[in-house]
Amino acid sequence: MINSGRDRILQAAAELFAANGFTATTTRDIAERAGIKQPSLYAHFKVKSDILRELLLETLRPGVERGEALAAETGRPARDRLTELLDFDIRVLFTGRRSVAVLGVLPEVRAGQFAEAHQLRERLRDAYAGLSREVLTELGHPPGDEYLKRIAGIVFAVVESISLRRYEDPDLDVEDAVRDTTTAILRILGA
Amino acid sequence: MINSGRDRILQAAAELFAANGFTATTTRDIAERAGIKQPSLYAHFKVKSDILRELLLETLRPGVERGEALAAETGRPARDRLTELLDFDIRVLFTGRRSVAVLGVLPEVRAGQFAEAHQLRERLRDAYAGLSREVLTELGHPPGDEYLKRIAGIVFAVVESISLRRYEDPDLDVEDAVRDTTTAILRILGA
DNA sequence: GTCTATACTGTGATAGAC
DNA sequence: GTCTATCACAGTATAGAC
After folding, report:
1. Could you say which residues from 142 to 181 on chain A have a Cβ atom under 8 Å away from some Cβ of chain B?
2. Where would you tag: which of A84, A183, B42, B121 has the fewest CB atoms within 10 A of its CB?
3. Apex CA A55: angle with CA A54 and CA A58, to 5°?
């Protein structure tokens, strides 16, 4: 059901969380935007944080799956696989029916509670790190662990920044974002 | 006074805001970390948001001043000036006695209220955009307005990501951060 | 599954003594 | 400028009827 009550709630919450943060968004705000009364939320979610929890998992899972598959794949240049992951990941952020944006970067997500989402994010980061290592190696510059960690940190930051960039410029075009981001990241890696 | 009550409050608040966000940080949390009782905060700040306000302005002002000066300067390669701004800006984030980190990216900062800080952030972004345009031009690729906006968005995102990267790896070394970030950004610009 | 009514708690902020 | 005491309100969540 695309427009079920539950879905309306998730949609509304995603937009509000992205705009104002988790704690600053009240259950009343969410309910109002979803077109129901505040207590009705609790017919769908046990507690407020479960809404964010579901949004986070939903947003992260596709990228993690694809990322780990691509990182494990062999026999194809890492550069191509990294490009493919970026393409996939960025499109999820744009075409997902939610404006899931910034969610992964919300400070509240770091503080306890959302361990599962945090873990998924780590796995996605690892996928990017693994592909980055391979790309660097292909280019004749196999990185040390320390250096890889730092450079992959920047790469992942650029990926995650898409949410914020899109938030600040709602007209940002998907194709532009995919192309610019991919180019930037390949250049950061020295390609 | 480096350890005046007021300063202890700012220090405590900066750390808590960065870790948990603005709304999720209570005035009691701040007071406790500052070693005073909650109502004593109000001898120093009229309202809670004034604490964040001051932290934001304090963090942004030096970079803005330096950035606008460097962007206006002529007769020196833009590449050198951009490098200098990055060096300065990143060191402020690291050596500032506050862990001002993520503050600029807090969602709550976007929603109304902190207009002055928002404006400073725009000016800093403009300084980076201006220098980026010059660098691209020096390289023989004068950008169109649209392209510049997008590429400068990525550049600025990399700069701002330092806060988060440092938060996630508190051992991150200043010199490494300066070098890696500068290299990444110059590469993004095609240098 | 949605509503009205409401309980309970946490939070920002003030009053006023020291 | 710090404290204790306290207020007023906002916010999450529950109860129970429809």
Report:
1. 149-151, 153-154, 157-158, 160-161, 164-165, 167-169, 172, 176-177, 180-181
2. B42
3. 85
Residues of A in contact with B184 (CB under 8 A): 151, 154, 188
Helix, strand, coil in percent for chain B, rounding step 5: 75, 0, 25
Those residues with Cβ within 8 angstroms of residue A158's Cβ, 6 or more apart along the chain or in another chain: A181, A184, A185, A188, B154, B157, B158, B161
CATH topology of domain A53-188: Tetracycline Repressor; domain 2 (1.10.357)
Residue A170 confidence (pLDDT)? 87
User: Tens digits of per-residue pLDDT, A42-71?
Assistant: 999 999 999 999 999 998 999 999 999 999
* Residues of chain B with C-beta less than 8 angstroms from the C-beta of A160: 161
Residue-wise pLDDT for A124-137, tens only, equals: 999 999 999 999 99
Task: Name which of B19, B111, B168 is nearest A111 (Cβ-Cβ).
Answer: B19
pLDDT at res. B167: 82
Give the class (CATH, top level) of B56-188: mainly alpha
Look up the pTM and report it: 0.95
Sorted by where each begins, the domain ranges of chain B are 56-188
Q: Which of B106, B107, B177 sits opposite A19 (nearest CB)?
A: B107
**Between the CA of residue B140 and those of A40, B29, B40, B74, B136, what are the distances in Å?**
60, 53, 58, 18, 7
Average pLDDT over residues A8-35: 95
